[in-house]
What we know:
- The chain has about 100 residues and is mainly alpha-helical.
- Helix content is about 75%, strand content about 0%.
- The chain has two domains: about 1-65, Orthogonal Bundle (434 Repressor (Amino-terminal Domain)); about 70-104.
- The longest helix is centred in the last third of the chain and has 20 residues, at about 85-104.
Amino acid sequence: MKKEIGKRIKNIRENMGLTKEAFAKLLGISGQYLGVVERGGSYLSIDKLKILCDLTNLSSDYILFGKDNNVIDNTKNLLSDFTSDQIQTGCNMLKELADLIKKI
Protein backbone atom coordinates (compact mmCIF):
# COMPACT_ATOMS: atom_id res chain seq x y z
CA MET A 1 0.00 0.00 0.00
CA LYS A 2 2.84 2.42 0.84
CA LYS A 3 4.36 1.96 -2.60
CA GLU A 4 1.09 2.73 -4.39
CA ILE A 5 0.57 5.87 -2.31
CA GLY A 6 4.15 6.91 -2.98
CA LYS A 7 3.69 6.40 -6.72
CA ARG A 8 0.55 8.54 -6.72
CA ILE A 9 2.32 11.31 -4.81
CA LYS A 10 5.26 11.16 -7.22
CA ASN A 11 2.89 11.32 -10.21
CA ILE A 12 1.11 14.31 -8.69
CA ARG A 13 4.43 16.10 -8.19
CA GLU A 14 5.64 15.30 -11.69
CA ASN A 15 2.33 16.38 -13.25
CA MET A 16 2.72 19.68 -11.43
CA GLY A 17 6.20 20.00 -12.94
CA LEU A 18 7.89 20.38 -9.55
CA THR A 19 11.19 19.07 -8.26
CA LYS A 20 11.24 17.04 -5.07
CA GLU A 21 12.73 19.99 -3.25
CA ALA A 22 10.10 22.48 -4.47
CA PHE A 23 7.22 20.10 -3.77
CA ALA A 24 8.61 19.18 -0.36
CA LYS A 25 8.88 22.86 0.55
CA LEU A 26 5.18 23.34 -0.26
CA LEU A 27 4.34 20.41 2.02
CA GLY A 28 6.67 21.56 4.79
CA ILE A 29 8.93 18.50 4.69
CA SER A 30 12.46 17.83 3.46
CA GLY A 31 13.19 16.72 -0.07
CA GLN A 32 14.92 13.67 1.37
CA TYR A 33 11.81 12.65 3.31
CA LEU A 34 9.64 13.20 0.23
CA GLY A 35 11.91 10.79 -1.63
CA VAL A 36 11.35 8.18 1.07
CA VAL A 37 7.57 8.70 0.82
CA GLU A 38 7.62 8.49 -3.00
CA ARG A 39 9.54 5.20 -2.81
CA GLY A 40 6.98 3.79 -0.36
CA GLY A 41 9.24 3.82 2.67
CA SER A 42 6.97 6.01 4.79
CA TYR A 43 3.70 7.92 4.84
CA LEU A 44 2.85 11.59 5.01
CA SER A 45 1.35 12.68 8.31
CA ILE A 46 -2.33 13.56 8.38
CA ASP A 47 -1.41 17.25 8.51
CA LYS A 48 0.82 16.95 5.44
CA LEU A 49 -1.83 14.89 3.62
CA LYS A 50 -4.33 17.69 4.21
CA ILE A 51 -1.86 20.23 2.82
CA LEU A 52 -1.37 18.00 -0.23
CA CYS A 53 -5.14 17.70 -0.76
CA ASP A 54 -5.63 21.46 -0.41
CA LEU A 55 -2.68 22.21 -2.66
CA THR A 56 -3.77 19.88 -5.47
CA ASN A 57 -7.55 19.93 -5.02
CA LEU A 58 -7.42 16.11 -4.91
CA SER A 59 -9.28 13.98 -2.39
CA SER A 60 -7.54 11.92 0.25
CA ASP A 61 -9.46 8.94 -1.21
CA TYR A 62 -7.52 9.38 -4.42
CA ILE A 63 -4.13 9.87 -2.75
CA LEU A 64 -4.55 6.97 -0.32
CA PHE A 65 -6.65 4.50 -2.31
CA GLY A 66 -6.60 5.65 -5.94
CA LYS A 67 -10.34 6.34 -5.94
CA ASP A 68 -11.02 9.42 -8.02
CA ASN A 69 -14.49 10.60 -7.05
CA ASN A 70 -13.84 13.90 -8.81
CA VAL A 71 -14.11 12.13 -12.18
CA ILE A 72 -17.69 11.10 -11.40
CA ASP A 73 -18.66 14.57 -10.20
CA ASN A 74 -16.92 16.27 -13.12
CA THR A 75 -18.61 13.95 -15.62
CA LYS A 76 -22.03 14.58 -14.10
CA ASN A 77 -21.47 18.34 -14.30
CA LEU A 78 -20.23 18.11 -17.87
CA LEU A 79 -23.17 16.01 -19.03
CA SER A 80 -25.85 17.95 -17.16
CA ASP A 81 -26.40 20.25 -20.17
CA PHE A 82 -27.21 17.33 -22.50
CA THR A 83 -30.39 15.33 -22.98
CA SER A 84 -30.46 11.57 -22.46
CA ASP A 85 -30.73 11.08 -26.23
CA GLN A 86 -27.67 13.25 -26.85
CA ILE A 87 -25.69 11.32 -24.25
CA GLN A 88 -26.75 7.99 -25.76
CA THR A 89 -25.77 9.18 -29.24
CA GLY A 90 -22.37 10.28 -27.93
CA CYS A 91 -21.82 6.91 -26.24
CA ASN A 92 -22.73 5.08 -29.43
CA MET A 93 -20.30 7.23 -31.43
CA LEU A 94 -17.52 6.54 -28.90
CA LYS A 95 -18.17 2.80 -29.14
CA GLU A 96 -17.99 2.96 -32.95
CA LEU A 97 -14.76 4.97 -32.73
CA ALA A 98 -13.26 2.43 -30.30
CA ASP A 99 -14.21 -0.42 -32.65
CA LEU A 100 -12.63 1.43 -35.58
CA ILE A 101 -9.40 2.03 -33.63
CA LYS A 102 -9.19 -1.67 -32.73
CA LYS A 103 -9.24 -2.54 -36.44
CA ILE A 104 -6.28 -0.31 -37.23
